[in-house]
């Protein structure tokens, strides 16, 4: 889809983009998404989790991104409930970063890819609305979509493993 290519050109983002680690100050550019990226090294990262991310397949990394996005949405909702504006903003920006990463790395040369791009764009806009307007309904809507994608992706990984390795595959 032309939108994805235009977005990539305008933002300078490619499929090989990395984010600064959680310990990097915001003034260094970009918003960190903590230990989600496999190359992110943080003193808060569990060594087991770090190894799991470094050895994960692209499908498993996508699953990790969905799970991270849900985690940040949940933390943003908690911050909303406690009226902690700065925390809400931080967590929603991190969720937005994950959705943008999914958008940038998405292959949009098919109808399915174009549809997914549009859905990611919608989720991103709902996250922005939730942040700007402190809109819990927008946040819930974005979360429902991400959970649905995560659950579907998890099933795809499970079916792929069963097809390749037999009955034992779990995602």
UniProtKB/TrEMBL annotation:
GO cellular component terms given for this protein: cytosol
Skewed-composition ranges (Polar residues): 12-21, 29-47
Pfam families: FliS
Keywords: Bacterial flagellum biogenesis, Cell projection, Chaperone, Cilium, Cytoplasm, Flagellum
BP GO annotations: bacterial-type flagellum assembly; bacterial-type flagellum-dependent cell motility
Family matches, as NCBIfam families: fliS
Family: Belongs to the FliS family.
The protein's name in its UniProt record: Flagellar export chaperone FliS
Gene from which the chain derives: fliS
């Amino acid at each position: 889809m032309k939108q994805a290519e235009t977005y990539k050109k305008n933002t300078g983002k490619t499929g090989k983009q990395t984010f600064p680690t959680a310990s990097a100050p915001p003034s260094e550019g970009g918003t960190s998404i903590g230990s989600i990226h496999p190359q992110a090294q943080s003193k808060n990262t569990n060594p087991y989790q770090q190894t799991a991310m470094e050895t994960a397949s692209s499908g498993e990394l996508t699953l990790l991104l969905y799970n991270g996005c849900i985690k940040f949405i949940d933390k943003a909702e908690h911050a909303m409930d406690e009226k902690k504006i700065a925390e809400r903003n931080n967590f929603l920006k991190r969720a937005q970063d994950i959705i943008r990463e999914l958008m940038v790395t998405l292959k949009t040369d098919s109808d399915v890819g174009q549809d997914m791009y549009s859905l990611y764009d919608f989720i991103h806009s709902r996250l922005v609305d939730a942040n700007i307007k402190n809109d819990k309904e927008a946040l819930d809507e974005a979360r429902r979509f991400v959970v649905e994608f995560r659950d579907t992706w998890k099933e795809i990984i499970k079916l792929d493993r069963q097809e390749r390795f037999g009955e034992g595959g779990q995602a």
